[in-house]
TrEMBL record:
Residues 322-332, 343-353 have a biased composition (Acidic residues). This is Mg-protoporphyrin IX chelatase. Belongs to the Mg-chelatase subunits D/I family. Residues 314-451 are annotated as: Disordered. Residues 354-363 have a biased composition (Gly residues). InterPro entries: AAA+_ATPase, BchD/ChlD_VWA, ChlI/MoxR_AAA_lid, Cob_chelat_sub_put, Mg-chelatase_DI-like, Mg_chelatse_chII-like_cat_dom, P-loop_NTPase, VWF_A. Residues 502-679 form the VWFA domain. SMART domains: AAA (SM00382), VWA (SM00327).
C-alpha cells in the first residue's frame, strides 16, 4: 500500500482542511462537498484525512463492521455473540463514477436464492464504508441511479438490496465526502443538500506559497516514506487534538443565544427546510470543541454559516454559491443583541492557531471570491476588419461609443428571465446515457422483455427464468417443491427508460440580429433550455456565427455556471456567415459523436436566413444545411426576419435541413421547447 500524503503537509487551503477536521471531530456534521478547479489538492486532502481518524471497534469476523457495544440485530452476518471484539483502522472507501449498482449496494446470488432458498450476499461499497468515509471523486458525474441509492442510504442509515422478493438489509452510516469541478456540471439538489458543509477551493496566486507546494510535492514523489516520516510528529499531534476534541464535544454548551443566531441566519438567507439549522448547530459545536472551548461563541456561528449555507441558498443552478458576509454580520449582530451566546466573544482567550482553521477563522478568500470558470474565451475574439459592410439594422443607441465606424461589435445584452420549459424529446428509441428526456433502452426503467444475459446477470426477469426452467424439471430429477434452476435458465430483463440528449443551438449573432429585444429573447431561451437540460441530465451546446466566421461559444456541457457566463458576454455585429455556422455545428456534432456515439442530437438554428459575405453565401448555406438532412439530424429553424418585406430565406434553409421553420414570434419563452417537440415528432412520422 502506498504511503499517503500527510495531512499536515498540505499548504494553504485552510477552509478545506478545517471542514474535513470538523467532520473528523463530529461525523454528525454530515460530510463535505469540495468544489474547485483541477489540481487544487482536493483528492489529496480527503485521502490524507483517513489516516487521522481514530480506530474503530468492530465485531470480529463481521463483514458489516458492527459495533460490539451495539451490534445490528438485523445484520446479515448476525446474530453476534458477545465478546468477539476487534479494532481496526477507519476505512476510506472510494466510489468510482462508473461503478455498477451491484458494486455499490452488494449483490445477491439469484441462482442460489431460487434453487437453494439461501440469501448468499456479497457486500458492496456501502457495507465497506459503514462507520468510515465514503469518498466520491467527481461526484457531479455520478449516474442518477447511484445518486438515488446514496440518497436512500444517507437518509435511512441502511442499505436495502431487493431482487425479486429476496431482500437483504444492513446498516450503512458513513461520512460522505465528494469532490467536483463545477466546469464539468452541477450536482443534483437532493444530493447537494445531503452534504453538511461545502468548500470552494482554488490554487493560490501567491508565488511563495506555490513554490512551497511544488517543493513538498517533489520531495514526496522522490521519497514518500521519508517525507511522511518528517511529518510524523505533526500528524500525531493533530490526531491527538482530534481525539481531545471528540472527548470535549459532549460537554460543549450550545446556548439559546447561539441557537437564535443560527435560526435567524438561516431565515435571513431563505434556505429551504430545517437541515441547514441542524447542520449549523452541529458545526458550531464542533468548532468550539476544536478550539478547546466548552461554549459556542458568535464567531463559531459565523464560521458555521460560511461552511454550511452557501450550497443551500442557491435557488437555481445560475446562482453562484457564496454568502453576503455583510448581511451575515448584520444578521448575527441583530440576533445577538441582548442574548446569551454562551460566552463573551471579546473576552475569550485567543484560540489555538497551530492547527488548520484553529479558532474558526473564516476561509481564505471568503465567499465573495467564488471559484468560477474562466469565461474570457467567449467574448475576447477581436472584431474582423472586413465587417465594415455589415448588414446591421440595430439602432445607433445600441452601438458602444468605442465601436468602429460603419457599425461594429454591439454591446452584449442581458438574457430575458429564464422560464420553465415544456419537455423536449428526440423521437425514436435511443441507447444513450441515462437521463430524463427521450425514450431509450436502459438498465433502469419499466421492463419490456427478456433476453439471455450477456456477462453478469444484473436484472433478473423472474417469469422468463421460470418459464425457461420449467420444461426441464423432470429431466433434472426434481423431487421436492423447489425449482431446479441452471445458469442457462436465467434471463436478463430488458428495460425502457429515459436518456439524455444533446441540444445544440446555432445562433445568428450578426448585425441583422443585433436588435436588443431579439438577442435577449434568444439568450433567455438558451438559458432556459440549459436549466431544463441540467434537470434532465442533458448536454447543451451553443455555436454562434457573425462577421466572417463561426465559433463554439459553449462546447457541449451540462455546466450551467459556465454556460450562463458565456451567454452573458455573447457579442453581436457583423455579416451573416450562415454556412460557417452550420459547418461549425456539424463539426461539433461529429466530434461529440466520437466521444459519445449513443447520445442523439437536436439542432435549433436561430437566424433570419439572410446569408451575407463571401461568394454565393445563400447557396453555400444550402449545401451546408443538406449535410444535416442527409444525416437525419432533427432540426428546427426559428425565423428572426423582421420588417414589411420578408424574403423567406429561413424557410428555405429549413427545407435544406429537413426541418421545420417558425417565426420569431414563436420564440416566446413558453413556446420554444414545445415547438421543438412538435417539430421532431413531425419529422419522425415523415421518416417512418
Amino acid at each position: 500500500m502506498s504511503t499517503p500524503y500527510p495531512f499536515t503537509a498540505l499548504v494553504g487551503q485552510d477552509d478545506l482542511r478545517l471542514a474535513l477536521l470538523l467532520n473528523a471531530v463530529s461525523p454528525a456534521v454530515g460530510g463535505v462537498l469540495v468544489r474547485g478547479e483541477k489540481g487544487t489538492a482536493k483528492s489529496t486532502a480527503v485521502r490524507a484525512l483517513s489516516a487521522l481518524l481514530p480506530q474503530v471497534p468492530v465485531v470480529a469476523g463481521c463483514r458489516f463492521s458492527c459495533d460490539p457495544a451495539a451490534p445490528d440485530p438485523a445484520c446479515p452476518d448476525g446474530p453476534h455473540d458477545a465478546g468477539g471484539a476487534a479494532v481496526r483502522d477507519a476505512r476510506m472507501v472510494e466510489l468510482p463514477v462508473g461503478a455498477s449498482e451491484d458494486r455499490l449496494v452488494g449483490a445477491l446470488d439469484i441462482e442460489r436464492a431460487l434453487s437453494e432458498g439461501v440469501k448468499a450476499f456479497e457486500p458492496g461499497l456501502l457495507a465497506d464504508a459503514h462507520r468510515g468515509i465514503l469518498y466520491v471523486d467527481e461526484v457531479n458525474l455520478l449516474h442518477d441511479h447511484l445518486v438515488d441509492l446514496l440518497l436512500d442510504a444517507a437518509a435511512m442509515g441502511a442499505s436495502y438490496v431487493e431482487r425479486e422478493g429476496v431482500s437483504v438489509r444492513h446498516a450503512a452510516r458513513f461520512l460522505l465526502v465528494g469532490t467536483m469541478n463545477p466546469e464539468e456540471g452541477e450536482l443534483r439538489p437532493q444530493l447537494l443538500d445531503r452534504f453538511g458543509l461545502t468548500v470552494e477551493v482554488a490554487a493560490s496566486r501567491e508565488t511563495d506559497q506555490r513554490v512551497e507546494v511544488v517543493r513538498r510535492r517533489l520531495a514526496y514523489d522522490d521519497d514518500a516514506e521519508g517525507f511522511a516520516a518528517r511529518w510524523h510528529d505533526d500528524e500525531t499531534a493533530l490526531r491527538e487534538r482530534i481525539v481531545a476534541a471528540r472527548a470535549l464535544l459532549p460537554q460543549v454548551r450550545l446556548g439559546d443565544g447561539a441557537l437564535r443566531q443560527i435560526a435567524a441566519t438561516c431565515a435571513a438567507f431563505e434556505v429551504d427546510g430545517m437541515r441547514a439549522d441542524i447542520v449549523m448547530a452541529r458545526t458550531a459545536t464542533a468548532l468550539a470543541a476544536w478550539a478547546g472551548r466548552s461554549d459556542v461563541l458568535a464567531e463559531d456561528v459565523r464560521q458555521a454559516a460560511l461552511l454550511a449555507l452557501p450550497h443551500r441558498r442557491r435557488r437555481n443552478p445560475f446562482d453562484a454559491p457564496g454568502l453576503d458576509e455583510d448581511k451575515l454580520d448584520d444578521t448575527l449582530e441583530q440576533a445577538g443583541d441582548g442574548s446569551d451566546t454562551g460566552g463573551d466573544g471579546d473576552d475569550d482567550p485567543e484560540p489555538d492557531g497551530d492547527g488548520p482553521g484553529g479558532g474558526g477563522q473564516p476561509p481564505q478568500g471568503g465567499p465573495d471570491a467564488p471559484d468560477t470558470p474562466d469565461t474570457s474565451d467567449a467574448s475576447d475574439a477581436p472584431a474582423d476588419d472586413r465587417r465594415t459592410g455589415q448588414d446591421d439594422d440595430s439602432s445607433p443607441a445600441q452601438v458602444p461609443a468605442q465601436a468602429p465606424a460603419g457599425g461594429g461589435e454591439q454591446q452584449p445584452v442581458q438574457a430575458s428571465e429564464p422560464f420553465r420549459t415544456k419537455m423536449l424529446t428526440v423521437p425514436g428509441l435511443g441507447e444513450g446515457a441515462a437521463g430524463r428526456r427521450s425514450r431509450a433502452r436502459t438498465e433502469h426503467g419499466r421492463t419490456t422483455g427478456a433476453r439471455r444475459p450477456q456477462g453478469a446477470l444484473t436484472k433478473l426477469h423472474l417469469a422468463a427464468t421460470v418459464q425457461a426452467a420449467a420444461p426441464h424439471q423432470r429431466a433434472r430429477g426434481r423431487s421436492g417443491r423447489g425449482l431446479v434452476v441452471r445458469r442457462d435458465d436465467l434471463r436478463q430483463a430488458t428495460r425502457e427508460g429515459r436518456e439524455g440528449n444533446l441540444v445544440l443551438f446555432v445562433v445568428d449573432a450578426s448585425g441583422s440580429m443585433a436588435a436588443r429585444q431579439r438577442m435577449s429573447a434568444v439568450k433567455g431561451a438558451v438559458l432556459s433550455l440549459l436549466l431544463d437540460a441540467y434537470q434532465r441530465r442533458d448536454k447543451v451546446g451553443l455555436v454562434t456565427f457573425r462577421g466572417s466566421d463561426a465559433e463554439v461559444a459553449l462546447p457541449p456541457t451540462s455546466s450551467v455556471d459556465a454556460a450562463a457566463a458565456r451567454l452573458e458576454t455573447l457579442p453581436t455585429g457583423g455579416r451573416t456567415p450562415v454556412a460557417a455556422g452550420l459547418l461549425k455545428a456539424h463539426d461539433v456534432l461529429r466530434v461529440e459523436r466520437l466521444r459519445d456515439p449513443a447520445r442523439r442530437p437536436l439542432v435549433v438554428v436561430v437566424t433570419d436566413g439572410r446569408a451575407t459575405g463571401g461568394v454565393e453565401p445563400v447557396a453555400r448555406a444550402g449545401r451546408a444545411a443538406r449535410l444535416f438532412g442527409a444525416a437525419g439530424i432533427a432540426s428546427v429553424v426559428v425565423d428572426c426576419e423582421s420588417g414589411h418585406v420578408r424574403l423567406g430565406l429561413a424557410g428555405q434553409l429549413a427545407g435544406e435541413l429537413g426541418g421545420t421553420v417558425v417565426t420569431l414570434d414563436e420564440l416566446r419563452a413558453e413556446s420554444i421547447a414545445g415547438l421543438v417537440k412538435d417539430v421532431t415528432g413531425t419529422r419522425m412520422r415523415s421518416v417512418a
